[in-house]
Design a protein that fits this description.
elongated, mainly alpha, 10 helices
């Protein structure tokens, strides 16, 4: 029997050291995060991220200055929808409107209307510049005080496009209030109401105005048909002529020089529009056959 103390000491068995952890996963994660960050940066720079850049207005097609004597005023509709309370001509003069030149309108605010204008133009075939010009004339692009609640000074009309809700039993608003159903509502825009239709909802009101203008003869051209539709939008009186002259001249000016929030038409262009479209209608209004309550009764009050 051997002496255990005389046996040589056996080496202890140690477990092999662990292999170093792989850094591949960490590098892949870092690279992935870096690529994602770069993509987000590129998207922001190119406007792909919502809200990173202002929306651009719809495309514009040039319209030449109209020439007096070439107007298609024979297409004038005799059943205009006057804004004036109780049919009184001139009770709502164009000078009462807050002009966009006087109002401070942010570019981001205007960008909220471009998808609406584009949808309205695509849906009803009305040039968005005419629609925008009326929007400016009625409420300075929805910035005039009190347009999102109550009614105007004549207690008849309200909202950004100033629709009449009192000339019943079937009001002007009733005729076109469901117009929003024909187009796709943008996911976000200025002043979206909780219920629809609403004269205070910008999409509902602008779609309804476009429908009304289309029904009154407006199309894509900024011509006599557009003038007639603007004239009908206000009403058949001398103030309505001035209103249509101003609205169409502004739209034509935008088509010639580009859309500009604070730019109005030149006096020469307003005069050209009046000579081509407004003057013959104004002359007809001043003839004896057009004077008096009986003549105004032919029009439907808005």
């Amino acid at each position: 029997m051997s002496d255990p103390e005389s046996e040589p000491e056996r080496p202890r068995a140690y477990a092999p050291p662990p292999s170093p952890a792989s850094e591949r996963g960490a590098w892949l994660l870092a690279i992935t995060l870096g690529v994602l960050g770069l993509l987000v940066l590129l998207a922001a720079l190119t406007g792909a991220v919502a809200g990173s850049t202002a929306a651009a207005p719809p495309a514009i097609i040039y319209t030449p200055t109209p020439v007096p004597g070439s107007a298609d005023t024979a297409a004038l509709v005799t059943s205009g929808r006057a804004h004036d309370a109780a049919g009184a001509p001139g009770s709502r003069g164009v000078q009462r409107f807050t002009s966009a030149q006087e109002a401070r309108i942010a570019s981001a605010w205007m960008a909220g209307f471009y998808p609406i204008y584009a949808t309205a133009q695509r849906t009803f075939g009305v040039n968005w510049l005419l629609l925008a010009s009326i929007h400016m004339q009625e409420s300075a692009f929805s910035t005039s005080p009190g347009i999102y609640s109550g009614l105007n000074f004549a207690h008849c009309c309200g909202g950004p496009m100033q629709f009449n809700v009192t000339n019943g039993p079937l009001t002007t608003w009733d005729l076109v209030s469901d117009s929003y159903r024909y187009g796709t509502r943008p996911a976000a825009y200025n002043h979206m109401t909780a219920t629809h239709p609403s004269i205070y909802d910008d999409f509902d009101a602008i779609m309804a105005a476009s429908h009304l203008l289309s029904a009154d003869g407006a199309g894509f051209p900024l011509d006599g048909g557009a003038w007639v539709a603007a004239y009908d939008y206000y009403g058949h009186d001398a103030t309505g002529v001035s209103y249509a002259d101003e609205v169409l001249a502004r739209a034509i000016s935008w088509s010639q020089h580009g859309f500009c929030i604070t730019c109005g038409p030149s006096a020469a262009l307003v005069q050209a529009v009046h000579g081509a479209y407004g003057a013959p209608v104004l002359a007809a209004l001043r003839t004896p056959a057009r004077r008096g309550p009986a003549a105004r009764a032919a029009g439907r009050v808005r």
